[in-house]
From TrEMBL:
Record carries keyword Glycosyltransferase: yes
Protein name: uracil phosphoribosyltransferase
Cofactor(s) recorded in Swiss-Prot or TrEMBL: Mg(2+)
One Pfam family from the record: UPRTase
Sorted UniProt keywords: Allosteric enzyme, Glycosyltransferase, GTP-binding, Nucleotide-binding, Transferase
Amino acid sequence: MGRERVVILPQGNHLLSLMTILRDSSTDCKKFAETAEKVGDKIISAALDMLPPQPTHVACPTGVTYEGVQESTPVCGVAILRAGASLENALRRGYTGPLSFGKMLIQRDETTCLPTLYYAKFPPQIGSQKVLILEPMLATGGSACAAIDGLKQRGVLEENIIFVNVLASESGVETLLSRFPGISLVTATIDKDLTSNNIISPGLGDFGDRFYGTDG
């Protein structure tokens, strides 16, 4: 079901140590944000590897010509607010080609778990760009599906969408790929379970609250 379009970061010791810090309930806001930025750099890099490069050549200080590549694909990073904004700096740091940003505010009803799109702002040329949806958590997939529906309504093709994610649930990934088989997904790791309240388990809690220090 489109699994060939899913990239899960190599589960090496360094990434596992970072994810352990994020999952630890005793990690304070400052440490959580610093660690999330490090994971963000890794998943953004993996997403950018999926974009086609343009061949180029440069003159090296030794006088030799080097046949390399450059990033030239127009990219729009679309953050699902508010947690998705935490990945914007990683994209700014990582991408050397033409870059713009969009925002979407999608909130889930805590009782019905159904998402509602309240706000969206995109660059006018988004229909011709590669779009990286920035969303740290993928639980049921409801908000992610609403975001993709909103982008498709504005002319963005599924094959031009990469969903960039820190932590996903197995069922959320299945939902997303069954609805939109043409998209790609990059995540740091996938947890198998959801709680009865549709929270990723073991998970890491509310990413936005922990990143911004609003978890009380």
